[in-house]
């Protein structure tokens, strides 16, 4: 069977990833895009791209395949990748489906049904139930999980009975929005555990192998953010047992294509339990590719074309260690809430050499319609320690700005002594609390602002309409120094400088600075004999200045202060660009601290905005289904007076 044109029914970094392998195989690539992401890089990278209304519209995707002449469809991950009906539709149209059979997808893609199959195959499972009234039998704490879900969407931790009803309702809405399927089930939650998964590959001739394990325990909001292969906690005996359990399950259902069998490993007892089987490519598949040298997308396409694997289990050899960090547009300091905006700077450094699977570039707009993943950064090393160091340094050297990201948090995690020791259970973030944001010291702030000031003077000379050949700040008389007002993280500073006859600058009346080279995107500075090249990106009144530990956003302040927008006292503001999906109170209602007042949606995830204190609703400014910007006041509360006091 020949595949000469492949439509990828997905977007962003995974679309680009699949395009890359398809092009290497000589296959024409077809993309699909919506109004919300028509300007993203993956659209231009496809040989052909077809506009659709949405990624959950099976008929629109089939129509795009027909219009483009595609002979095969790859679903990527998420959206309809584990939707058996979609696979049936593609096959019924005479196209090749890149994935397992619809029958297997139906059996394994349904998380609750897959657990029953695992039990029948003798694979241990956690207590669970698709009867939402059986929480008492499952036991608390438990997870409400989307039956057709993945990526942490439609998944909520419940510690007591009074949290269950709201968690179920929220999970249903998120699952429907993300997967067009609102079914959920209950599953027992282990507090100290590891999330370990086994990658499998099978062909249509019955050959089946596993490609080792991955650990994906470091998570926030039940979404993985750091993954690695192999797991640092598994010995050869346990690895063999988990691999055989995965293959046993796959054999029972006649699995072919790439897939993943996920387990939860009790960190104390060393018992492992089946969680789910993913009948698709995983977000974290690159770490397996880096350790085994096997291109999983290529194998998927070969298998779909009817080719045999051509190798057996003994031929699969993993070398070294690989770690992947998921770089998100989000604010770790605010509970990892997603962020939106324009990526104003995005330039990976040439070294250390790592793999960037990215869906963005400088100028890409990040909206609220999709998951805020910017890139997956993957490092391979001879040892785990080397891979972690290489990945951390690559993240630090990434020139990045324009949206809040978890970059600094990822670096802190990779360099944390507990991570390096392999103490990576699912409660890692709560137990070890890695630093969430970069906190530059006084010297780092001074270097960043001096660099910004010198870049600005170079820019001013470049743009000068007259006497542009004269050094910036030159005077033919004794006049005050040039001064630039800047701020970093809300801290204001002023940098002064004057040019000297030899072309050097005296900065802040103390430092000798020489500009060796100035360009629109960088500056080569020597400060008191120490020379460094800094990447610099200008975006309006902001400069993104690259430092040794990351990118510092420097705001160039105007000469005259502008009036600030005032937030009303007691105002409840939007924590991110979002859509209001529920308003639970009205003017005059009495509320208590912690009570949910509004529910908003961003990136297919719901966020509950709660009352910060007891009080009375004074104003409701938000409207149902309204799209609001970050920082917009949604509601105003009058706080109760302290006991024993009365308002005058």
Structural class: alpha+beta
The assembly state of the depicted protein chains is: single chain
The strand line-up of the biggest sheet is 14-13-10-11-12-15-22-20
Number of continuous helical runs: 16
**Chain-averaged pLDDT:** 91
Q: What's the CATH class label of the largest domain? A: Alpha Beta
Strand-residue fraction?
Answer: 25-35%
**CATH topology name of the largest domain:** D-amino Acid Aminotransferase, Chain A, domain 1
In whole angstroms, how far apart are the ends? 84 Å
- The amount of helix comes to 25-40%
Shape: globular
Sheet bearing the most strands, described? Answer: 8 strands, antiparallel
User: Uncertain runs with pLDDT below 50, 5 residues or more?
Assistant: none
Cα gyration radius (Å): 27 Å
The CATH homologous superfamily of the largest domain is termed ATP-grasp fold, B domain
User: Number of DSSP strands?
Assistant: 39
């Amino acid at each position: 069977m020949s595949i000469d044109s492949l439509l990828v029914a997905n977007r962003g970094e995974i679309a680009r990833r699949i395009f890359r392998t398809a092009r290497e195989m000589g296959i024409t690539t077809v993309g699909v895009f919506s109004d919300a992401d028509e300007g993203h890089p993956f659209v231009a990278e496809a040989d052909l791209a077809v506009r659709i209304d949405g990624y959950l519209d099976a008929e629109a995707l089939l129509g795009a395949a027909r219009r483009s002449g595609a002979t095969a469809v790859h679903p990527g991950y998420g959206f309809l990748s584990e939707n058996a009906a979609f696979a049936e539709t593609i096959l019924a149209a005479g196209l090749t489906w890149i994935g397992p059979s619809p029958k297997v997808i139906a059996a394994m893609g349904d998380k609750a049904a897959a657990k029953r199959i695992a039990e029948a195959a003798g694979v241990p499972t956690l207590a669970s139930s698709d009867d939402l009234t059986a929480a008492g039998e499952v036991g608390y704490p438990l997870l409400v999980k989307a039956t057709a879900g993945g990526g942490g969407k439609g998944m909520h931790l419940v510690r007591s009975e009074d949290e269950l009803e709201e968690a179920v309702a929220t999970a249903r809405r998120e699952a429907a929005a993300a997967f067009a399927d609102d079914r959920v089930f209950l599953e027992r939650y282990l507090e100290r555990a590891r999330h370990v998964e086994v990658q499998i590959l099978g062909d249509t001739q019955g050959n089946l192998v596993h490609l080792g394990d991955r650990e994906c325990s470091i998570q926030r909001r039940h979404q993985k953010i750091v993954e690695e292969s192999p797991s640092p906690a598994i010995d050869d005996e346990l690895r063999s047992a988990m691999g055989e359990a995965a293959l046993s399950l796959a054999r029972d259902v006649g699995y072919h294509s790439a897939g993943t069998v996920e387990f939860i490993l009790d960190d104390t007892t060393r018992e492992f339990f089946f969680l789910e089987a993913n009948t698709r490519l995983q977000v974290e598949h690159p770490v397996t590719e880096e350790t085994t040298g096997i291109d999983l997308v290529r194998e998927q396409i070969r298998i779909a074309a009817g080719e045999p694997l051509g190798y057996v289990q003994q031929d699969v050899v993993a070398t070294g260690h690989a770690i992947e960090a998921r770089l998100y547009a989000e604010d770790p300091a605010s509970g990892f809430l997603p962020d939106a905006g324009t990526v104003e700077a995005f330039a990976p450094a040439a070294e250390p050499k790592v793999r960037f699977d990215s869906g963005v570039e400088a100028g890409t707009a990040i909206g609220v319609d999709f998951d805020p993943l910017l890139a997956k950064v993957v490092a391979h090393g001879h040892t785990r320690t080397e891979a972690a160091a290489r990945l951390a340094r690559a993240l630090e050297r990434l020139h990045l700005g324009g949206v809040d990201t978890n970059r600094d948090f990822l670096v802190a995690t990779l360099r944390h002594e507990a991570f390096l020791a392999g103490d990576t259970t699912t409660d890692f973030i709560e137990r070890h609390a890695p630093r969430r944001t970069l906190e530059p010291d006084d010297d780092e702030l001074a270097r960043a602002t001096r660099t910004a000031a010198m870049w600005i003077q170079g820019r001013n000379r470049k743009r000068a309409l007259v006497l542009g050949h004269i050094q910036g700040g030159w005077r033919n008389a004794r006049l005050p120094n040039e001064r630039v007002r800047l701020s970093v993280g809300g801290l204001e500073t002023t940098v002064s400088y004057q040019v000297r006859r030899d072309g050097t600058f005296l900065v802040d009346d103390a430092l000798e600075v020489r500009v060796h080279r100035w360009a629109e995107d960088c500056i080569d500075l020597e400060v008191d004999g120490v020379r460094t090249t800094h990447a610099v990106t200008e975006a309006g009144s902001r400069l993104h200045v690259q430092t040794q530990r990351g990118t510092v956003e420097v705001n160039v302040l105007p000469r005259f202060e502008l009036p600030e927008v005032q937030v009303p006292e007691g105002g409840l503001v939007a924590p991110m660009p979002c859509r209001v999906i529920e308003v639970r109170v009205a003017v005059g209602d009495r509320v208590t601290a912690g009570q949910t007042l509004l529910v908003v949606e961003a990136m297919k995830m719901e966020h509950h905005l709660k009352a910060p204190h007891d009080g009375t609703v004074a104003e409701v400014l938000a409207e149902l289904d309204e799209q609001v910007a970050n920082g917009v006041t949604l509601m105003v509360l009058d706080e109760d007076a302290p006991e024993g006091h009365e308002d005058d």
